[in-house]
Amino acid sequence: MGESRGAELLWGSRGKTARPQRLALTVDRIADAAIEVADAEGMAAVSMQHVAAQLEVTKMALYRHVASKAELVAVMIESAVGEPPDLTTVPGGWRPRLVRWADLMRAAWDRHPWLPAATTGERLTGPREVGWTESAVAALADTGLDGSERMDAVFLLSGHIRNTQSAATAGTQPWTAEKHLRDILRDHSHRFPALLEAEGSTNGSARDNGWSFGLERILDGLAVLIDSRR
Amino acid sequence: MGESRGAELLWGSRGKTARPQRLALTVDRIADAAIEVADAEGMAAVSMQHVAAQLEVTKMALYRHVASKAELVAVMIESAVGEPPDLTTVPGGWRPRLVRWADLMRAAWDRHPWLPAATTGERLTGPREVGWTESAVAALADTGLDGSERMDAVFLLSGHIRNTQSAATAGTQPWTAEKHLRDILRDHSHRFPALLEAEGSTNGSARDNGWSFGLERILDGLAVLIDSRR
DNA sequence: ACACCTTGTGTCCGCCGGACACACAAGTTA
DNA sequence: TAACTTGTGTGTCCGGCGGACACAAGGTGT
């Protein structure tokens, strides 16, 4: 990258050839470019080379602003999840608040389908991400649940978001591989009678990867516990 | 790899030097070696080179038996999850059956902590994996739930297993990063009052990443729905 | 005896993350 | 004004990755 500057030195205006007035590289610009790549081509396409090309610089230029790819991904995540919401204005107690929280979080993750892929494995965690957790835990303040129960409840809920979202972008699980599963069932239906029957007896509900079903079940389950504490 | 055979040709027994009586390479031996590597060093350490070295062959030899790394991983998964269980002998209806199913699945995933990492993203699915789903869906046969509800319920449950297991192996989520979270709270406690308070008011329960908590909530939530259908 | 087929080897390619030395403009100080 | 420092982008190199492809050398069937 960076074509030879020989001809330019010979023929160009010599005085001010190098480094034209190009936008300065910043962490934010890098993160935005990386997010753009990830939104369009998926997390697998986010390499230092690709992001740098997007900004018309060499990949090593990026390392002046981020220490490693892991750090770049961390910055991408912080930017993509956005500011955590304020749920204190939502009326109706813990359940409507959690529903609002889940909808907002799902919306953010919907805008950036690579978030599940980016947030697996050991990694750095930023303040906004912690802020989202804070927000949900706060919504459970007056439920009579103790601290670890509140944490576990939020973990359960956000895990559900993660699962439905990653299932949405990749036919990752046996039960969500729509077409794939149907093919298997056609060829091996005798081995999976219960799946075959379940496939046939759907009530024609909207296919949302079990998002609303799981959400309702989780909230119902929390309600059972919370009511029992009163 | 494979040192030059010059000296051997000059000094060796010439007739039967090459290809000593070494165990024949098979898909199963390759998968076993790969699983061994993954169990010991994690999924990131599973490369064709590393697995081949484990078997004392070149990496290209593996491609005589598997078409790609994705196929190797698929075979690893099929081998690692094991045969799906027969739950029909478990008494007490759907709930004990699902508890048994979840415990068995969690045990298998516990033996192979790389399973979460290996089963994310687009991938191939084998009969055993589908068999596990079949097994759980079958356990919900007499609940009055329709087909897609049964599928969604199993998705919800197995998603919880995946989440708790991947949280166990990597401090991946803000709420499971134990030490990390504690550090953040020490430095920024004013920004996360609810987390700080939750951290303090735990009832000293066993730390299992919310496994049993989430399992009970999910099953309670399913029970609410199932009871309402009767 | 010979041809074929199977199976493992060696070499090459492009891409990855990243270390490191260098180029060069701008600001600071003498 | 001249010399130095600092900050930012470039070029080159490295080891490791998945994988294509040609080749070697057994075993086997005719």
Task: Tell me about this structure.
- Two copies of one chain form a homodimer.
- Chain A is mostly helical.
- The first copy, chain A, has two domains: 6-79, Homeodomain-like (Arc Repressor Mutant, subunit A, Orthogonal Bundle); 82-228, Tetracycline Repressor, domain 2, CATH 1.10.357.
- The first copy, chain A, is 61% helix and 0% strand.
- Chain A has twelve helices and no strands.
- Chain A has helices at residues 6-11, 27-41, 48-55, 59-62, 69-81, 94-111, 115-118, 127-139, 147-169, 178-188, 193-200, 211-228.
- In chain A, helix 2 crosses helix 5 (69-81), helix 6 (94-111) packs parallel to helix 9 (147-169) and helix 9 (147-169) packs antiparallel against helix 12.
- Chain A is flat and about 60 Å long.
- Chain A starts with 5 loop residues before the first helix and ends with a helix.
- Chain A binds a DNA duplex (30 and 30 nucleotides) through residues 1-2, 18-19, 24-25, 47-49, 57-61, 63-65, 68-69.
Output the CATH homologous superfamily of the largest domain in chain A: Tetracycline Repressor, domain 2
Range of strand content of chain A: under 5%
Coarse shape of chain A: flat
Number of domains of chain A: 2
Q: State the helicity of chain A in percent bands.
A: 55-70%
Structural class of chain A: mainly alpha
Second CATH tier, the architecture of the largest domain in chain A: Orthogonal Bundle
Oligomer: homodimer
According to CATH, what is the topology of the largest domain in chain A?
Answer: Tetracycline Repressor, domain 2
Radius of gyration of chain A from the CA trace? Answer: 24 Å
Uncertain stretches of 5 or more adjacent residues of chain A:
2-21
What is the level 1 CATH name of the largest domain in chain A?
Answer: Mainly Alpha
Task: Kindly state the number of beta strands of chain A.
Answer: 0
Mean pLDDT of chain A: 86
Distance between the termini of chain A: 67 Å
InterPro entries (chains A, B): Homeodomain-like_sf (IPR009057), HTH-type_TetR-like_transc_reg (IPR050109), HTH_TetR (IPR001647), Repressor_TetR_C (IPR004111), Tet_transcr_reg_TetR-rel_C_sf (IPR036271)
Domain HTH tetR-type (chains A, B): 24-84
Pfam families (chains A, B): TetR_C_1, TetR_N
GO molecular function (chains A, B): DNA-binding transcription factor activity; transcription cis-regulatory region binding
